[in-house]
Known about the structure:
Aminopeptidase, two-stranded antiparallel sheet, 3 helices, alpha+beta, 7-stranded mixed beta sheet, single chain
Amino acid sequence: MLTIHRQTLVIRALLVPFDDPRLGPMLQEYMREWSAILPMRPEADGRFVYPHAYRFVDDDHEPLLFDDGAKIVGFALARRVDDAWQVQEFFVLPAERRRRVGQAAFAALVSRRPGPWTLTVREENPAALAFWSRVFAEPPVTELGADGVSRRRFWLRA
């Protein structure tokens, strides 16, 4: 729950199966946004294929939808890595941005699984870097991934 200018914004993080019909359209919109930044192409039918879907069938991977009580406003894909949870993907519908929905959604996500959380952001995504820099108190650390891509790692330590 986040209170902004005397209005209370309540976002719930709902654990769902990866094949939940509400998640697919959100994931498509997310990947469509990414295709403007990275060289991603849709399939012949115009849909994008999420390359890591097979991972979200075990207990260490959680697909979640963000709900504001009236509608779905976004999603996250998270996974457990050692003693921390890692945000793999995080998306808030463009119409819901700039109202602190993203901050409230992350707070809802963390409240489901108290403890340390981490995520990485690619340098090619300055809007995400700016957003997460406002969310996390600790500054990010730059790291080079196994794929050779530079990312900034953010930590929320327990």
